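input
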Amino acid sequence: MSLRVMPNLDVYRPCDTIETAECWALALEKTDGPSLLALSRQNLPQLRTDGGENRSAKGAYRLLAAEAERQVVLIATGSEVEIAVAIRTELEARGIGTDVVSMPSWERFDAQSAEYRDDILPHHVLRVSIEAGTTMGWERYTGIAGMRFGIDGFGASGPAPALYEHFGLTAAAIVPQIVAALA
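output
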């Protein structure tokens, strides 16, 4: 979050190798200031197999669309997109339609048209953000009534899976809270 508030710095947090290549290309195109790619040390799964169109260019896009009637939009970035996909699997199994939106760049998403932003993050559903960082700032995308899952503390150290468990950044911890919020 601290890097996102720096003026004229484009921050990219890709979720897999395809997004990394897309964000790298966008950073190379930028001529009016610096860009930063925030990459994970974890071994991440490949979430996309499509090439061609640079889907990261819009800052956020629907990685997975709801199969049941859409009730939830999960917005995640970087390594937490994997968690959002796991949450979606569980919610869809319960008949709760859930989109997964990958948001590698706040700056690029904010620059899109209102129509595009409203299509990706509709107002009539529960919007939920997931990032292994502070939840501060995510309310601009979730709305005040949305949910934000992150780490609002500092100084914990350990293997990523243990920290995700400790901070409740797992499908097992998040799904019941979303279900309760919808009830």
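quick obs: The chain has a mean pLDDT of 93.
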